[in-house]
Specification:
mainly beta; Neuraminidase; 2 domains; 4-stranded antiparallel beta sheet; 14% helix; globular; disordered C terminus; binds calcium ion
C-alpha cells in the first residue's frame, strides 16, 4: 500500500513537472556556429546549447517551429544560393539536412519562412527572382514541404516579404520588409486574397534592423533578431492585438544571431530517468490481483 501511494504520488508529481517543461516556451536562436537559447526579456542572457555543424559559409536565415512534427526548422542558404531545410536537435544543437528547394540555375532566392497553424497547418515561405527588375522582391508566397523542398503557390502580394511571423493566439500572419525595399512596415497578410494591412514602421536601415521574427504566446509579443547588427527587438501588441510599438531591447552578446523561433523546451534528462524509474515501480503493482 505504501509503495502504491508513493508511486501514485511520484507519477503525479513527475507528470506535472514534465507537462510544465513541455508546455514552457523557449526562445531558440541560431548563430554562425551554435544553436542557442535567449531570454526574450533580457537578450543579454544567451545560453549556448551546442554546435549545429552546418556546412561552412552557410547562413541560417529563417527559423520556425513546426508543432505537427515537433521540429525546429531552418532555411539555410550559402549567400543567396542552394536553399535547403534543416532541423535542429534542441538538446545538442546538431542540424540535420532535410529537403533542398528546387532552384534551377539559382534563379530564385527564398526569404520569409514560418509555420502557420489553424486551417493551413503548413510551413509558408516567400520567393523572389534573383535577377531583373524584381530581384530580391519576394512577392510570391508558397506552402512548402520541408522534407521534400516541394512547394505550391498560395498568393502574390506585391511586397518584399523578407520575414514572416504567425500570431498563434489570433491566427494572424504578418510580414516585414525591414530594409524598405517596397514598404517599411510590419503588415498583416491575408493568405487567401494576398491583401496586406499595414501597421507600424520597422525599417532601421539597409544593413541593420529587425530581422527574423518570433511570436511568444506567453508574452503575447513579437520578437526580432537584427539582420545585421547584434541588437534585439520587441514589437508590442495593443489591446486589439495589433502591432503598436517597436522597442530596442539592447545588445546580444557573442556571435550574431541570424534567426529565432519559440519552441517547447525538451524534457530534462533527469525527468526522463525518473519516469523510467516510475515505470519499473509501477509494473509489479499492475500485476497484483485486484
Ligand atoms: Ca522565425
Ligand atoms: Ca527581399
Amino acid at each position: 500500500m505504501g509503495w502504491r501511494i508513493l508511486a501514485v504520488a511520484l507519477v503525479g508529481a513527475i507528470s506535472l513537472s514534465t507537462s510544465t517543461a513541455l508546455a514552457a516556451e523557449t526562445l531558440f536562436g541560431v548563430t554562425t556556429a551554435n544553436l542557442v537559447t535567449i531570454d526574450p526579456t533580457n537578450p543579454a542572457n544567451v545560453t549556448i546549447i551546442g554546435p549545429h555543424n552546418l556546412p561552412a559559409n552557410n547562413e541560417a536565415t529563417q527559423l520556425t517551429y513546426d508543432p505537427v512534427t515537433d521540429r525546429l526548422l531552418e532555411l539555410v542558404m550559402n549567400g543567396t544560393v542552394n536553399p535547403q531545410f534543416y532541423s535542429f536537435n534542441r538538446s545538442t544543437g546538431q542540424a540535420t539536412a532535410l529537403g533542398a528547394l528546387p532552384n534551377p540555375s539559382n534563379s530564385f532566392i527564398y526569404e520569409g519562412t514560418e509555420f502557420v497553424g489553424g486551417t493551413r497547418n503548413q510551413v509558408v515561405m516567400s520567393q523572389a527572382p534573383s535577377t531583373g527588375a524584381q530581384a530580391g522582391i519576394s512577392s510570391q508566397i508558397f506552402n512548402v514541404n520541408p522534407d521534400t523542398g516541394l512547394f505550391t503557390p498560395i498568393t502574390f502580394n506585391g511586397r518584399d516579404n523578407d520575414f514572416f511571423v504567425w500570431d498563434s493566439k489570433r491566427d494572424r500572419f504578418y510580414a516585414t520588409d525591414p530594409n524598405g525595399s517596397v514598404n517599411n512596415t510590419i503588415y498583416q497578410v491575408n493568405l487567401v486574397t494576398g491583401a496586406s494591412t499595414d501597421f507600424i514602421p520597422v525599417v532601421q536601415g539597409t544593413t541593420a534592423g529587425p530581422g527574423d521574427l518570433a511570436y511568444s504566446t506567453t508574452l503575447d509579443s513579437i520578437f526580432a533578431t537584427d539582420f545585421g547588427a547584434n541588437v534585439f527587438w520587441r514589437i508590442n501588441l495593443n489591446a486589439s492585438g495589433n502591432p503598436a510599438t517597436l522597442l530596442n531591447l539592447g545588445t546580444v552578446p557573442g556571435q550574431h544571431i541570424s534567426s529565432i523561433a519559440f519552441a517547447p523546451a525538451v524534457p530534462e534528462p533527469s525527468s526522463l530517468a525518473v519516469l523510467a524509474l516510475i515505470a519499473v515501480i509501477s509494473v509489479p503493482r499492475k500485476r497484483k490481483p485486484l
